[in-house]
């Protein structure tokens, strides 16, 4: 049985994508299948040093919830292309946003798919994704609000981020000591960052000049 209930999709996203399948879902009266669209091919998803964590999580979840079967749909191997990166050959998967749109608008769209935050505005404009805030209890999710804001477009929570990549700037204390400039305290503005960088003889950054 194919299902489109976002209640179950949000559970699978939290348990499978974060590989923390350890909670029980509510009782079901009949088996269901949920299709999870991988953004990789099968050959590129297996055989690595980490093994196969997604399929391991799916198997563990199924043990806890035998009536729920998660089917991992891989991209076709034909999407793998050889590209040149600085003179070195590299294998890449040519799966574009347009390809994803065609998949979501097809007669058999996946229940779950990974999407880049940069593609969310276009996906929202095409009404391709469900607003997760319509799910009962969604506003009580224990996820950092700033992270959820990255997945919210026009007041709609369109996806659940499963990772965050914070940026950090390190500084050399010796250089600051030699220039007799106080260490940054974390409250610098971009203007202060630019001015101190100039005093330290750093190469100007175009966006800050």
From TrEMBL:
Coiled-coil features, chain-numbered ranges: none
Pfam families cross-referenced by the UniProt entry: SBP_bac_1
InterPro entries: Bact_solute-bd_prot1, SBP
PANTHER family, sorted: ARABINOSE-BINDING PROTEIN-RELATED, DIACETYLCHITOBIOSE BINDING PROTEIN DASA
Name this protein carries in UniProt: Extracellular solute-binding protein
Organism: Paenibacillus psychroresistens
